[in-house]
Amino acid sequence: MSDQPETPARPLKVAIVGAGPAGFYAAGQLLAAKGVAAEVDLFDKLPTPYGLVRFGVAPDHPKIKSVTRVYEKIAQKPGFRFFGNVEVGKDITHAELLERHHAVLYATGASHDRRLGIPGEDLPGSHPATEFVAWYNGHPEARDLEFDLSAKRAVVIGNGNVAVDVARMLGLDAGELRETDTADHAIEALIASEVEEIVMLGRRGLAQAAFTNPELRELGEMADCDIVVDPAEVALDEHSARWLERDDADVREKRNVEIATEYSTRTPEGKKRRIVLRFLASPVRILGEDRVEGIEIVRNELVADDDGWLSARPTEETEVIECGLVLRSIGYRGTKLHDVPFDDQRATIRNVGGRVIDENDDEQVPGVYTAGWIKRGPSGIIGTNKKCAQGTVDALLEDLESGQLPEPTVTEDDLPELVAERKPDHVDWSAWSRIDAHEQALGEPQGRPRVKLTRISEMVDVATAAGAVGERT
Ligand SMILES: Cc1cc2nc3c(=O)[nH]c(=O)nc-3n(C[C@H](O)[C@H](O)[C@H](O)COP(=O)(O)OP(=O)(O)OC[C@H]3O[C@@H](n4cnc5c(N)ncnc54)[C@H](O)[C@@H]3O)c2cc1C
Ligand SMILES: NC(=O)c1ccc[n+]([C@@H]2O[C@H](COP(=O)([O-])OP(=O)(O)OC[C@H]3O[C@@H](n4cnc5c(N)ncnc54)[C@H](OP(=O)(O)O)[C@@H]3O)[C@@H](O)[C@H]2O)c1
């Protein structure tokens, strides 16, 4: 008889921390692994699962959110158990999880922002996009944030898809907003917004922008928001022209240039709002006495390094754009978890192919793994995390096969009692399903996918209305 933990009598027990896409894909892959009987305990610090699918993906993109059906199926698999509203590192420790499982897999995402490091960055009216996104999506930690939308002009810094989401959310009209699951507090504020112009700033050129074609195309299809691009902004410099002609040129970049070039030929229709795309411009400082009054930008030129990579170099030319709101969308950043080796430079958990490695000697930390944004950094779409999680799960199963996984020292299943003691208001899958049904029922009469509960106390009230907690599917 094998002494490896892989039979129904001695299942492989894995704790996964973070119920976003990476955590769910890893759970599904472990529970589907051939010849291995696995049990998965999935933890999330929030009562609600799905991570950025709930709190990141733009509310006017409901089809993308339907990926949660895949995760619901995973949650129905035998061996799955959910502990929501339980923060690992606070309510339960890494050591306590490792004592009770053969492996702990961290999929905690990257929820903080990267800093610009310029004067005025923290003036009232200058916010990271991470906070604005969390606010309009109803994240409980962003529930009480306030955004002053009384200025006529907002500036969004960055040229990624998050910057596009943020610019578009500022440009949606009441009808477009009211059919979404945008948090109610944000719908009212966005409808009352006096912002008329949203300027999106890219530090490099149009041909180097990180956003994707459908997202750029959407900016030209908004009900009451024009897209404005000065023809001079889309004229390609010699580097960009060469960049797009190279053999391995990216079709996405070529299409972006075509789409924005078409925008530059449009005459604005006089809609209520407009989104203005600007390129080759970096913020130098955010101006204002007590709050944001403007932003000083510098004109950049592109320079090529030996590998042909194009980066932005500031020229002498500066300009001030008057504005009352600045949203900094230059990327997300992971944060360190207690007792888990962290690479401060990359802001990721230290790992090789998902196996966590020690801070001092780079040796593998037995039984500890990572997947998703906290493993590889904050880039990639939802589906990217499937492959990423598979890499980690393959490594974990290889380690199981070669007898590298540590044995749990606590063998009885006391986790439900331990969690109940520490966090009496934790939420299991059936309790989450009650929150889910409640939100959908609130949304139905309004023709919306759901009305989100945005306070943890409200969620817990609905979740604990009935039912036992801590049962495995
Ligand atoms: C604004 C925005 C919009 C996006 N839109 C799209 C889109 O339209 N389409 C697309 O394909 N991709 C989109 N993405 C990308 C996609 O959301 C990410 O690729 C994906 O969510 C990353 O998955 P993850 O599991 O690594 O992290 P996350 O989704 O962030 O999940 C991490 C989970 O860990 C939990 N957690 C953190 N710390 C702890 C702890 N200590 N204890 C317990 N739980 C913890 C968090 O609560 C969270 O639920 C978007 C990203 C952003 C930021
Ligand atoms: N609809 C969707 O599919 C969707 C929606 C949202 C997010 N996502 C995905 O989620 C991931 C994260 O998106 P993201 O937009 O946060 O990141 P991103 O795609 O990495 O874009 C970051 C942007 O910030 C710019 N930037 C970085 N530092 C800067 C600085 N100091 N000054 C000025 N600009 C700076 C970058 O410019 P440089 O290129 O010059 O570095 C880039 O334009 C991406 O993979 C994205 O595709 C997908």
Automatic annotation (TrEMBL):
Pfam families: Pyr_redox_2. Residues 13-170 form the FAD/NAD(P)-binding domain. It catalyses: 2 reduced [2Fe-2S]-[ferredoxin] + NADP(+) + H(+) = 2 oxidized [2Fe-2S]-[ferredoxin] + NADPH. NADP(+) binds at N159, G160, N161, V162, R203, R204, E215, G380. GO terms for molecular function: ferredoxin-NADP+ reductase activity. FAD binds at A22, L52, V88, W373, G380, I381, I382. Signal peptide: none annotated. It is an enzyme of class 1 (oxidoreductase). InterPro entries: FAD/NAD-bd_sf (IPR036188), FAD/NAD-binding_dom (IPR023753), Ferredox_Rdtase (IPR055275), Ferredox_Rdtase_adrenod (IPR021163). Keywords: FAD, Flavoprotein, NADP, Oxidoreductase. Its EC number is 1.18.1.2. Its cofactor is FAD. The keyword RNA-binding does not apply. Belongs to the ferredoxin--NADP reductase type 1 family. This is ferredoxin--NADP(+) reductase.
